[in-house]
Amino acid sequence: MWTLKLRPGVKFTDGNAYDAEAVKFNWERQADPATLSPSQAFVASWIKGLKIVDPLTIEITLPKADRNFGSGIAQLAPFIASPEALKAAKTKTDIKPVAPARSSSTAGTRASR
After folding, report:
1. How many CB atoms are located within 10 Å of the residue 81 CB?
2. DSSP letters spanning 6-61
3. Domains of the chain by start residue, with CATH
4. What is the β-pairing status of strands 50-54 and 57-60?
5. With 80 as the cut, is the pLDDT of residue 98 above it?
């Protein structure tokens, strides 16, 4: 079993909480073949073992032991988007980047080059 602890107080730049429900929503979306996600097969192989313990804790029970699961999740399913932003998009090209932000002072800002 893998236990993932999320940082408290993190919000997406749209103001929604970066919590266990947001992570679960993203991974269930990736596991859906209709999304054509490149990580679909990987996430689908363990998504049924995902359990939300509390708003900041996720437990994942794998169908079989996998010593490479940590690196697999880091490589194949590292990006978590705001569920509200994903729900609002009618097509993939409508998805607007809404990332986690550590504080409200970073909300809505963009790095300049």
Report:
1. 20
2. PPTT-EETTS-B-SHHHHHHHHHHHHSGGGT-TTHHHHHTTGGGEEEEETTEEEE-
3. 2-101 (3.90.76.10)
4. antiparallel
5. no
- Phi first, then psi, for residue 37 (nearest 5°) are -70, 135
Q: Phi first, then psi: give them for residue 112, nearest 5 degrees.
A: -95, 155
Q: Hey, what are 113's tokens?
A: 């080059």
- Diameter of the chain measured on Cα atoms: 45
- Give the bridge partners for 60, in sequence order: 2, 50
61, 64, 81, 58: CA torsion to nearest 10: 10
Distance of alpha carbon 11 from alpha carbon 17, whole angstroms:
4
pLDDT tens-digit readout, 39-79: 999 999 999 999 999 999 999 999 999 999 999 999 998 88
**How many of the other CB atoms lie within 10 Å of CB of 64?**
6
